[in-house]
Amino acid sequence: MQIVNKKDSFSNKSIAKSAGVIAIGTMASRILGYVRDMIIARLFGTGSPAQAFFQAFRIPNLLRDIVGEGATNAAFIPVFAEYLTKKDKKEFWELANVLMNLMLVILAGISIVGVLISPVIVRLIAPGFVSDPEKFHLTVRLTQVMFPYILLAGLTAYGSGILNSLKYFSIPAIGPCLFNIFLILSALLLCQKYKIGASFSEGLFNSSFRYLSSLKKVWI
């Protein structure tokens, strides 16, 4: 007769549950992202506003993947896990504070530089827009609106790394879903009055605020 260690059994169930939560969150995020793109295409068509939006979103979103989520998953989570294993919680939070400040400075710097050189960026990623001044200037304005997205998305990705290290998996899993939900709602509610830039900003700031608020509960 095989004896099953209850502790190992509980650990396996916990891992399976966490993996399930992450998988469901990722799937829901992908579906909502598809719905988001459909709604934006429906509201703004395939004309200049939609083209400007998707071009303006390219660079900030790419930098978010590299600087925010990529750096967090590759570097911070293993360090956090090691600190939690070998050191006490006080040292863990001291490290988290130092890295948070460093991330804040770096991402804020990238955002500011991006806003300042947005015309150059648009010329590089969408050279065909230069011949259409209205579309070009709209893309520049949207790029300037979206660059702070790097700061907020990077900080939320950092918060996700901390929460994952502390074995809080559900909140990071639904973070991308919240972003897509608020972007969809804000696009539906605000696009007619404030156009596409305000719709993106509203969804971004609402989802980031709710996501970081969840981290604050754990931090305190």
Your description of this structure?
The chain is an all-alpha fold and 220 residues long. The chain has one domain. It is built from seven helices and no strands.
For this entry, give a set of tags:
220 residues; mainly alpha; 7 helices
Strand content: under 5%
Q: Mean pLDDT score, rounded? A: 75
Number of helices: 7
What's the alpha carbon Rg, rounded to whole Å? 20 Å
Largest sheet: none
- Which regions are unreliable across 5 or more consecutive residues at pLDDT < 50? none
Number of domains: 1
Shape: flat
Oligomer: single chain
Number of strands: 0
Helix-strand category: mainly alpha
H/E element sequence: HHHHHHH
End-to-end C-alpha gap:
47 Å
The percent range for helix content is over 70%
